[in-house]
UniProtKB/TrEMBL annotation:
Residues 517-823 form the DUF403 domain. InterPro entries: ATP-dep_Glu-Cys_Ligase-2, CP_ATPgrasp_2, DUF403. Pfam families: Alpha-E, CP_ATPgrasp_2. Residues 90-468 form the Circularly permuted ATP-grasp type domain. Coiled coil: none annotated. This is Uncharacterized protein.
Length: 837
């Protein structure tokens, strides 16, 4: 067909496309014929020159970048976030073929639910010998703590996924079941948004099935699990260090869930609550993206710092619904695959519609003998989700790939640890087309398909998440080792329904609140404000030192020295002394301003001190990553830009580098003011900003405006606090101490003054919710009111070092009191849970 085609663009597109030997290919038959359902995609791409095709796909890349989609690679030295790698050509599956996949997924999900219900209930499968006891008791994902208890709502498995691959015989095979905490749904949705934006006409004309119906069913199912309308549903995440944290935050926003970490939750009297700035609020259901073993340090893994103490007891009491149940990961073990065909016949009376890859558990003597008889044709891997004798859970060891000593070692593992090992048929994955910038080429892939249990039965996502290998090795691939992802298009012969999670017009309940703010999120917003303001204050000192050192002679050495001493006191520099130089004018040994500046500024901008720019920007970035769902894309990008500047600007002069950082920080401040909903979260960000700026300004004043301060020191203070223009507009005289003190400390119209910070911090605090109902003025409110009254009634002539230090210490105490009130809430808050829940 390709050779006879009169379309030169199509011939060029597929000029080097050659299916791999003995490997099924999605695009072409073994005879080299293009499969009909791929022709619309090929014809669309063939209309354009390769450069134009790449430009079209660049739209998808831009969509991914603009959405901030990322994942984290664990086994790299930096462990940083990586942009989401997109393979631009979608996998195309016609509806007739998809119906078979869908039926197989539903059958398998129902089967696994039946198995889980039995194993955590009467255990008849073990009693009757259908499953060896060692496969269950030896599985680390079997959670004895919940054995005998029935999940709230009845189902162990609420969300299920299966990794599929097409074998050389053309059939789809299940490679792995995903029941612990299936990931990838959010990435599948982002892939769909990106590819449909790049190929909108093709997406419409091919009548691609939508994904929103699946998420609508998922949200409805979770709401039903939660019980009454308006009940809180959380998505329990391990936190921002997890490789798929972006997806956790994305799904929480998309489905309207509360994103929570274990530290956000507490269990009181068997009921789960989330700590919010308004007190404890009950959580009725949780989507669990945390492995069950880490979910409760009291009854499961005692070393876990990610879970919720008492969660198992809440599950046993039936006060919280989990998706999926603790212990559902039991059926993910490779050892279970060995028994699935027989379990299907026993429990359903039918063979598996989607067979799984042939697997032998070596704990059975007969199976072990079979494995050793055909050893060179198999792959060896752990039976459960733990490593054994050098075999890792991330991939199988293909016997044929080993040398003689390697094969001998694998034989020894099978004989020495039979209960811990399985053997599998070597999987040769089918290939799909990937755009290499000029033409298409085949790459191996797997397809992850999702299903959710609804009251009407299992609903399967009509599409999925493809992982595509970067190499042409059809036996293994991983997103952690250079793989890419692709969208999956299920095409329909009929017009598709335009399903949306948006409510019908006229039926929208108007809301002006984002819901309850978890204490952890408020804490992170507060400290993000402090870190960014601390970085700005440090940079302003750096810029002032650089400017003064370049402009002046030894007469301003004292001002320069005080500024650099301040940087040392802030922990931003090491504080090594500069060597004296001989003054050309006086022939005396002095320390030139430039000499003072060089080493200190280098420390601040590039050193490893805790108060230096790399540390401060790193702290801000880590804090922002924990609340990524609450920051705009532009704000997230600006923080990432700051991190890039730390590494990329080292050849610029210090003052220029400080200018660049300050411009980005100013943009961040503007974004927070203009783009962020001005609710409680924004107020905590601003309070952190105001408290930190007031503290730093107090320290600057004590350092540069004491009674012995020279005009140069006072001018340096005005320069660092960005108040020179205002001062010069007000006063025609030189730089004098009392007017400077008034402007920098007491002028409530100066956005850099301490008075301005205290007044606005007080206003934000007054707008925050109270966590007690006694109506009395509490310590936090009393402290900020007293500070405001004092600074509003103080005159410049009354200012001395004792007064300034007093304000500084009271601001630090205010920060601690704020943390105790809103962030570090203890069990005493349970007293008000009943009234607030």
């Amino acid at each position: 067909m390709l050779a006879r085609s009169r379309n030169p663009g199509l011939r060029s597109l597929l000029a080097d496309y050659r299916p791999l030997p003995d490997v099924a290919d999605e695009l072409m038959t073994a005879a080299g014929e293009v499969r009909p359902h791929w022709l619309p995609v090929l014809n669309e791409m063939a209309r354009y020159r390769p450069a134009v095709v790449s430009q079209r796909f660049a739209v998808a890349d831009r969509q991914i970048k603009n959405s901030g989609v990322y994942y984290r690679v664990y086994d790299t030295p930096d462990g940083r976030d990586r942009p989401w790698p997109l393979a631009h050509v979608p996998l195309v599956i016609p509806d007739a073929e998809w119906r078979g996949i869908e039926a197989g997924i539903v059958q398998r999900a129902q089967l696994l639910e039946t198995v889980l219900s039995d194993l955590y209930g009467p255990a008849t499968l073990v009693r009757d010998g259908a499953l060896p006891a060692a496969v269950i008791a030896g599985n680390p994902d079997f959670q004895r703590a919940v054995a005998g208890s029935r999940p709230l709502g009845g189902e162990h498995l609420v969300i299920y996924a299966a990794d599929l691959g097409r074998g050389p015989d053309g059939r789809w095979w299940v490679l792995k079941d995903r029941a612990q905490a299936p990931s990838g749904m959010g990435y599948a949705l982002e892939n769909r948004l990106a590819i449909s934006a790049a190929l909108p006409a093709l997406y419409r004309d091919m009548q691609v099935e939508r994904l929103a119906g699946f998420f609508q069913a998922m949200r409805s199912t979770l709401a039903a699990k939660a019980g009454r309308e308006g009940s809180r549903i959380g998505l329990l995440t391990p936190g921002p260090a997890n490789e798929t944290y972006f997806e956790h935050a994305y799904l929480a926003r998309y489905l309207g869930l509360l994103l929570v970490e274990g530290a956000d939750l507490t269990v009181q009297d068997g009921t789960v609550y989330v700590r919010t700035i308004e007190g404890l609020k009950r959580i009725a259901a949780l989507v669990r993206r945390l492995d069950a073993d880490f979910a409760d340090p009291l009854e499961l893994n005692a070393g876990s710092r990610l879970g919720v103490p008492g969660l198992v007891q809440a599950v046993r009491q039936g006060s919280v619904a989990l998706a999926n149940s603790l212990g559902a990961g039991l059926v993910e073990a490779p050892a279970m695959l060995a028994f699935m065909p027989a379990l299907a016949r026993r429990l359903t009376g039918n063979d598996l519609i989607l067979p799984n890859v042939a697997t032998w558990w070596c704990g059975e003597a007969g199976a072990r003998e079979e494995v050793l008889r055909h050893f060179e044709r198999l792959a060896i891997l752990p039976a459960f989700t733990r490593e054994v004798a050098g075999l890792t859970r991330s991939g199988a060891s293909v016997v044929a790939d080993q040398d003689e000593s390697g094969q001998a070692r694998l034989r020894d593992v099978v004989n020495a640890h039979p209960l811990e090992v399985v053997a599998q048929e070597v999987v040769r994955l089918s290939t799909m087309p990937v755009w290499n910038g000029k033409r298409l080429e085949p790459h191996p892939f797997t397809l992850r398909v999702y299903a959710v249990a609804t009251p009407e039965g299992w609903k399967v996502m009509r599409g999925g998440f493809c992982r595509v290998g970067d190499s042409n090795d059809p036996r293994a691939l991983s997103m952690q080792h250079g793989g890419r992802s692709a969208d999956a298009w299920v095409t329909s012969e009929r017009p598709v329904d335009h399903v949306s999670l948006l409510p019908a017009p006229g039926k929208v309940a108007i809301k002006r609140s984002l819901g309850h703010l978890p204490s952890r999120a408020a804490d992170n917003l507060f400290w993000l404000g402090r870190y960014l303001e601390r970085a700005e204050a440090t940079l302003r000192v750096v810029r002032a030192v650089g400017e003064i050192a370049a402009e002046a002679d030894e007469e301003v050495v004292a001002a320069t020295q005080r500024l650099t001493d301040l940087l040392v006191a802030w922990g931003a520099a090491k504080g090594e002394k500069a060597e004296p130089a001989v003054s050309r004018r006086t022939a005396k040994a002095v320390i030139e301003p430039v000499a003072i500046a060089e080493g200190v500024l280098s420390d601040v901008l590039d050193g490893e001190e805790y108060g230096g720019m790399p540390a401060l920007i790193g702290a801000a970035a880590r804090t922002a990553s924990a609340i990524r769902e609450r920051l705009s894309r532009d704000a997230t990008q600006a923080i990432a830009d700051l991190g890039a500047m730390v590494v990329g600007d080292r050849n610029l002069p210090s003052a220029d580098r400080a200018d660049r950082y300050l411009h980005t920080l100013a943009a961040l401040s503007g974004l927070a003011h203009e783009n962020m909903n001005q609710l409680a979260g924004w107020r905590f960000l601003r309070i952190g900003h105001h408290i930190e700026r007031a503290i730093q300004t107090c320290r600057l004043v004590r350092r540069l405006a004491d009674e012995s301060a020279s005009a140069d020191m006072l001018d340096a203070l005005l320069r660092v606090t960005d108040s020179r223009i205002t001062y010069r507009a007000r006063y025609l005289m030189g730089t004098l101490r009392l007017p400077v003190l008034d402007l920098v400390l007491l002028d409530d119209g100066n956005p850099r003054s301490v008075a301005y910070q205290i007044i606005h911090a007080a206003e934000h605090l007054a707008a925050l919710p109270r966590t007690s109902r006694d109506g009395e003025v509490d310590a936090l409110t009393r402290a900020i009111r007293l500070m405001r009254a004092e600074i509003e009634t103080t005159q410049a002539a009354d200012v001395d070092d004792r007064l300034i230090l007093g304000f500084e210490n009271r601001l630090l105490a205010l920060s601690s009191e704020l943390s105790a009130r809103y962030f570090n809430q203890d069990e005493a808050m349970a007293e008000i849970a009943e009234g607030l829940g």
